[in-house]
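Morning!

This is the sequence you dropped in the shared folder:
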Amino acid sequence: MNAPVPPSTRPPSTPPGPSSGTTRRLRICDVGLRDGLQNEKAPVSTADKLRLGAALIDAGVRELEITSFVNPQAVPQMADAEAVEAGSRAWRDNGVRRTALVINEKGYGRAKESGIEGIVVVAVISETLGKRNSNMGIADAIATTRRIIGAAKRDGLFVRACLAPAWVCPFEGEVPDSRVYGAAEAVLAELPDELVVADTIGHADPRTVRDRCRRLLQMAGTERLVVHLHDTQALGMANAYAAMEVGATAFDASVGGLGGCPFAPGAAGNLATEDLVFLAAKLGLATGIDLDRLWSAVELAGELVGRKVGGRTGTYRAARATREERRS
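The structure's back. Tokens below.
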């Protein structure tokens, strides 16, 4: 007879994490309006972006990354940043927190002027990707991020500091642990509200996600660490679960699995919001998001980009619908 596994090493039946009463909660920020659409070649109108945001809010999403204040020649899909911000102000009445991405002081100036209540400032921690993305090396990117965090905090904005790529770079390969932890320590010194760690091209694996998130949770705390995953190698849900196992409770995801970075070859779609909500439901984790209504937003996203979209749970959903149709 095998010896019993000690409680400290026994795998949990559901991920650990802070709880309210008896229900654990998972926070999800949908980044579809920015990260999801930025790589789409065909322009999506401001009005349609606002329709998609409204559909996500109707489903219960309360954290949205709505646009980026970047060079419109480099990312044409985000050329209407000010218009999207202006058109979405009423969302705050529904308790929605909006953020917009910036990569330099010029972008931050535009964001501040627009009236947005929160920003995401990205420090690219790869020399090669940084030069292609923002024309900055690692040291400059971290210094710029620290300055912007400080300015935004003084200006009363909500600040998410994002480290990317936090696992694998499309040009340089695996990002060393020491670089990720060193960058995290540097930006956390400026006291951002959240620290986002991004698997920019979706090449992370559950073991390294678990190990790195465990250390980053110790550094940032459960309330501040956010995990941003892509599903390039079909490991998005496995990586999310690995992060949950060590206590992560906040994630970025994108409606329909839309996404990709124009500066990072191989950066396929984000982890689909509907997949993450489905996983949470299976694990008994509350998200506040209604999955049926979320699928309405997924269908709208597909309509706007001109093709069928949807996460891996879409296959199950379609098969279930077919079975029910045959029974009727």
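Headline: Residues 138-154 form the longest helix (17 residues).

More detail when I'm at my desk.
O.
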